[in-house]
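Sanity check record (used in CI):
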Amino acid sequence: MSTDNALVPTTSSVMMDDGAKLHVKILGDGNGSSSKPLLISLHGAPGLSTHLEPAASYTFLSKVYRVLVYDGRGSGTSDHIGPFSHDRWIKDIETLRKFYGAEKFVLAGASYGAFLALDYAVRHGDRLDGLILRGAWANGKFGPMNALANILTSDKVKVDTERQVRLWSGNLRNDQDFEDSIMELLPFYAPPHTADIQDIPESTEFMGTVKYHSATQNYAFGVNMPQFDVRDKLQSIKAPTYVVVGRHDYVTPVSSSEEIARAIPRAKLEIFEHSGHSPPSDEPKAFEASLAKWLKAEGLPSTS
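Expected output for AB hydrolase-1 domain-containing protein:
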């Protein structure tokens, strides 16, 4: 198979053990059976974001990895069959790992995907060659409340207070309520002075046709987050871990990433000084170079 053909995305519908089907793309191998190592990347914003966000972030690694991206259960075009719990989503990761024939793999998670990646790592750390976390917190009781407080006191956005409380507590009324809450919030995720940064592409976080599924968001923040607290388990994560955060991220602030990086034995913290919540889209060249350097330093396949 030629190199060009190997980089063509392969789209599949993969059935989980309960019959739900997930929309999956493999970047970096035409048929999913390559000898390349596997990297699974988890998107954020459950019920809103899709595989397009991690695809934009990690396609540059598809020359050395099979980069697996997918719409999580309850998001995008994957089946909306619950529960939308961490237990169920972790089972889905395990099904995909086995389906694509990997004993071990690199797991990347962005925003909410980073919370899920952390939960996977403390449960199944022996299956990880590496862990990449972007925009994470380790305490789901504190994190959403802190994000909401930052939003309500920010001069970057003018929001409906009651609607934002519904969003961050998992009490959205319907899909339209979800859409309205996100649309008024978008500037909050961006770094300041974005026009001064020359290598920013169009936003990858909400690319494509956006579909809002409030039931997924409500379960994630109304049920999962109050139960999510891995602070006392972080030291058990033995895989090399790359913790990425933007200096101007007020959703998952620098202090949260510092807490995680201090606790994980083999963690490296990288703060992107010109980024908000998404360094891969705010500073793509710097993000790619930094990640490639870290992979090489850890003895993992790298583009550098």
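Strands lie at 10-15, 21-27, 38-42, 66-70, 105-110, 128-134, 241-246, 267-272. If this sentence no longer matches the regenerated tokens, the check is flagged for review.
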